[in-house]
Amino acid sequence: MSSERVSEAPARFDPVIEVESAGKCYHIYDRPQDRLKQMLWRGRRHYYREFWALRDVSFTVRRGETIGVIGRNGSGKSTLLKLLCGTLTTTTGTVTVCGRVAALLELGTGFNPEFTGRENVYLNAAILGLDDGEVEHYLPEILAFADIGEFIDQPVKTYSSGMAVRLAFAVAAHVRADILIIDEALAVGDVFFVQKCMRFLRKFQEHGTLFFVSHDTAAVINLCDRVLWLEQGHVCEAGPAKDVCEHYLAKLFQTQTPGVEWAQQQPRLNQPAAAVDRRTAADGVDQRLAFLNQTRFRNDIELFAFHPQAGAYGTGAIRIVDACFEDQQGGVLQWVVGGEIVTLVVQALALVDLDSPIIGFLVKDRLGQHLFGDNTYLTYSTNPRPLMAGQTLTARFTFRMPVLPVGDYAVDIAAASGIQHDHVTHCWYNDMLVFKSHSSSVQQGLVGIPMLEIELTVISS
């Protein structure tokens, strides 16, 4: 029964976490006086019931891996993380961790609510192993990442849940940890902060070991190499993220719908074929959209204004000065329905002469997954548009907006020059435009498309 912490970081692919037959047992007392009786009897008689939050859990994690942990509430996920962090000790078995660990567990863990945000940065960083000199060195980066402004000198008890997560994540992101443990931390926060966190996590994955706990199986599949599925304190299954998550969802489906096999699909919620007159393909699309606009299947997408303070990198030879979505009449859109035709308009200012500028965009979901995008290179590869310093270049991308699941989305916009496979990036702006899908008919998948026709035919034998 031990939890061993080893500070020296191992080489890549060497084990960083080894858990062998680990278990954690709690004593449950029915009455307060039973605790006193137990102290007096000193083990000769038991006045409690045993509750095993974890039992006989074994696994090994190598450096550079990203491990997901899934399971229903009460399955032992949080207990396992606390064992890995060293805030709990095992009842049975051993837990060996090599390297510095940074963790984001329950909201506000490690914060003193009476201290200011700045004081809590020092406190939290000290808990994670940094001395005052290191904290002073990283403090500007931590404050910039948290981005909570003057509230940094206010007591944490006055913070919203989102502000507390911002500060906690900022500290954890800058302690140069070897192992990062995150428990549902990305469930709180606005779209800009979540995108910033996802960029950090993907960068961290290049050299560190990530433990990611979430009820969002899409996020787990997107981020993780392997997954541990915990059920009532035991490892129900461990393996590739996609396979384990599919089995987990199948088990949930069977539990919620007794007697129904997983092979049976839930019915699609679509209108009868007769609801739309599809005399031609074009008419079918338009009438399908009209139907969506009038029913609960409408995909309402709220478009937010251009974000000029978006973070950027590149040579700086081009600067994006404006971007928006327009309708077919050239009006600036604030709302759009999935399936409608829109135009993304990007205006870029040249600061130097350029022979063959390229403008492009990329749409991402809240996990930073790339959904779709394009650039101007192929269209103008044989007839480039030279640009002189001081001139403004306008790029227009017209497309049918996909039907998007409910959630937050962001648009990266970039400018370069050269050719597709050999170019110089002059600016890349993260999250320059954001939009939010408020309602959607999409139940599965990253995006949906308006169906031209859905038909069922019954043939009598």
What does this structure look like?
With 461 residues, the chain is of the alpha+beta class. Among the domains are: 177 residues, Rossmann fold (3-Layer(aba) Sandwich); 138 residues, Coagulation Factor XIII, Chain A, domain 1. It is built from nine helices and 20 strands. The strands form four sheets. Strands 11, 12, 14, 16, 17, 19 and 20 form a seven-stranded antiparallel beta sheet that branches. Strands 6-7-8-4-9-10 form a six-stranded mixed beta sheet, sandwiched between helices. Helix 4 crosses helix 5.
Q: Beta-sheet strand percentage?
A: 25-35%
Alpha-carbon distance between the two ends: 68 Å
* CATH superfamily placement of the domain at 2-99 and 178-256: P-loop containing nucleotide triphosphate hydrolases
- The overall pLDDT, averaged over residues, is 80
| Structural class by helix and strand composition | alpha+beta
What is CATH's topology name of the domain at 2-99 and 178-256? Answer: Rossmann fold
Are there runs of 5+ residues with pLDDT below 50, and where?
A: 260-297
Percent helix among the residues? Answer: 10-25%
Counted beta strands: 20
